[in-house]
Specification:
The protein has 355 residues and is an alpha/beta fold. It has two domains: 143 residues, 3-Layer(aba) Sandwich (D-Maltodextrin-Binding Protein, domain 2); 171 residues, 3-Layer(aba) Sandwich (D-Maltodextrin-Binding Protein, domain 2), CATH 3.40.190. Strand 6 and strand 7 form a beta hairpin. Helix 2 packs across helix 14 and helix 5 packs across helix 7. It starts with a helix and ends in an 8-residue tail after the last helix. The relative contact order is 0.18.
């Protein structure tokens, strides 16, 4: 009798769990029937185009997209699984190990990573001003919190440079004023890693730290000055363009795709001899270019309507191919082999593992 009672109890429990899971799915579908997307302001216009096309050509609602920045989107995405949490987050950099671990700790264990294309980070100014030619070394010396003592003495000092001509006599005698994104932005992350650290490596005394003291090297190379020279504009590239219109002497930081959309108002600076173009970014000659991603929760597929179909639309040749509608919007496509491999991986819902 005892064994039979145990068997009945197990059967009842199994039925209860199954019922709960099924009712949970039904509740999810009845509570939210629209895909929720957060994340990068750089990926936002690309995701918006796909979402609008998706809403017009399928039976599903147009996804809701919020521009929260890459870091802010990752935080929201990794908070948990369920209808109160977003299904997808866009990112203008790859997910960090700490973010991945936070996802795992909060039950977001199966994450689909989608590399969608490339973008260049531009330093731009008003078309009413002269176009500027910079090096990554110039950028670091202008914007770093600490720089080598210009008097030749050993050690680092608080950044004393006020004008671009102080950094490099070949540059204009204009006050250094750069408007850019906040620390939560993937554009900011990529800028400090590619432009600032790229300039760091050209200064022998700092470059040597990469081998002897990696933590100090990273802190010096990645820390932007906080004395008013660098002005944070939030996750709003339109605001940066407006400020550049109001102040033709200032420079602004944003993605190539946004530059393309506002080419009548702003122009890019040359960096290390290269102007950001479709070709220079795709072939890697432009030094400040980065990959673009989005991440999806496998647990939400089949629960929130349309996620699978959205993934397939984004990874279709008509969207992200060389002649696709995202290229028309300024996204630099992946090469054909990578696109084919990635599309196959997406179709199988392969999940990310970060050691």
């Amino acid at each position: 009798m005892k064994a039979r009672n145990v068997s009945l109890a197990i059967a009842a429990l199994t039925t209860s769990v199954a019922t709960t899971l099924l009712s949970g799915n039904a509740l999810a579908q009845s509570t939210r029937d629209q895909i929720s997307i957060v994340g990068s302001s750089t990926v936002y216009p690309f995701a918006t185009v796909v979402a609008e096309r998706f809403g017009q050509t399928t039976k599903f609602k147009t996804p809701k997209i919020e521009s929260t920045g890459s870091g802010g989107g990752m935080k929201l995405f990794c908070n948990g699984v369920g209808v109160e949490h977003p299904d997808i987050t866009n990112s203008s950099r790859r997910i960090k190990k700490g973010e991945y671990d936070n996802c795992q700790a909060n039950g977001v264990t199966d994450i689909i990573e989608v590399l969608i294309g490339f973008d260049g980070i531009t330093l731009a100014n008003s078309v009413e001003s002269d176009q500027i030619e910079l090096t990554t070394k110039d950028i670091f010396l202008a914007l770093a919190k600490e720089v080598p003592n210009p008097n030749g003495e050993e050690g680092l000092i608080d950044n004393p440079y006020e004008k671009w001509s102080d950094v490099n006599p070949e540059l204009p005698e204009l006050d250094i004023e750069v408007i850019g994104p906040p620390p939560t932005s993937g554009t900011r992350d990529a800028f400090v890693e590619l432009a600032m650290e790229g300039g760091c490596k050209k200064i022998e005394s700092i470059a040597a730290l990469a081998d002897t003291d990696k933590d100090t090297f990273k802190e010096v190379c990645h820390t932007i000055r906080e004395d008013g020279v660098f002005i944070e504009a939030g996750e709003n590239d339109n605001l940066i363009v407006q400020k550049l219109e109001a102040n033709p002497d200032a420079l602004g930081i944003f993605g190539f795709s946004f530059l393309e959309q506002n080419s009548d108002l702003v122009q890019p600076s040359y960096i290390d001899g290269f102007e950001p173009t479709f070709e220079s970014i795709s072939d890697g000659s432009y030094p400040v270019s980065r990959p673009l991603y989005f991440y999806a929760k496998k647990a939400h597929i089949g629960v929130i309507p349309g996620i699978e179909e959205y993934l397939l639309e984004f990874s279709s040749e008509g969207a992200w191919g060389e002649e696709g509608y995202l290229a028309d919007k300024g996204m630099i496509p992946l090469d054909e082999e990578t696109r084919t491999t990635s599309a196959a991986s997406i179709a199988k819902f392969e999940t990310l593992v970060l050691e």
